[in-house]
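Translate sequence into structure tokens.
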Amino acid sequence: MKYTLPLLLWAALFTACTQDEADIPQSHSLLELTASMAEPNTRATPDGTWTGGEKVAVFATNHNGGGAAYTYTASTTDELTPEDITKAHYWATGETSKDVYALYFGDGTAENIVWNGSGSWSVQSNQTGDGYQKSDMLWAMKSTVNAGSQANLTFKHQVAKVVIHIIDNDFTQAEKEKFKGVSIIDYPLSGTWKIMSPDISQLSWTSYTSYDDITPHELGPQEIILNGNKITTFTSYEALVLPGELIYNEKIFKFSFDGYAPFYYTQGDDEALASWDYGDVYTYCIEINSTGAVTVGSVTQGDWGDGGSYDLSTQ
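Result follows.
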């Protein structure tokens, strides 16, 4: 796909320009912002909502023709309010519209962001606790708002979500006390991102570093539908990962039991799934047997809400 925004124009658009407080008369009104969601369960928290207090870096053009990035705080009702009223976006006299963009980083590093159209992001290797939430990254592409109106920013995940359901069977029940967990094997933790265009909901990931195993967040037993039947899993996991390709015939997941050699799920070369893409959820239903066999009951790809999933072929 070809994007027509010239590089120099893009660089100029995102050159930080401090909003001079002296240029903002007391009569000028504050830009009102809300943070709506592209998917129903868009936040990487167990309840799928803003918990309140999340810090968001908001960029908006100003009346001088430049722009600035300031830190705003999200509420449980989706409002965004400036952390510092003197470092906020205002409507200037005669200003008719603004372009607004925003980024959210799960580790709370929105403060003092230098907005230059690119940066780096790392997911946590240990996501058993708050490392799961800290691994999330959201981007709200350009919203053009007219003077006197409220700007509604629609956020979309720039990471992928991987869900692993372990199917309950005689082996998992017999060895329940020996089960030690799941790992995603040797996957990139850090990547460099770039804004391709303010009108596109996807960031471009240009390079990856710091490969390591990822320990997912455990959900516990879950009720799921498998092959038309409702079942309860042995246990289930979820993790946030950078978008990236899956290498055929490479080990993807490791399942550990005391007294057994590790059990591995290997990406087969006849599978349709070639990558984990931003904003999507990849759900694996996996069965483990005492013989060492790891079989896949199903793999689905969908959005972070309740719909849009579809089956992918498996070995």
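Note: The chain has two helices and 22 strands.
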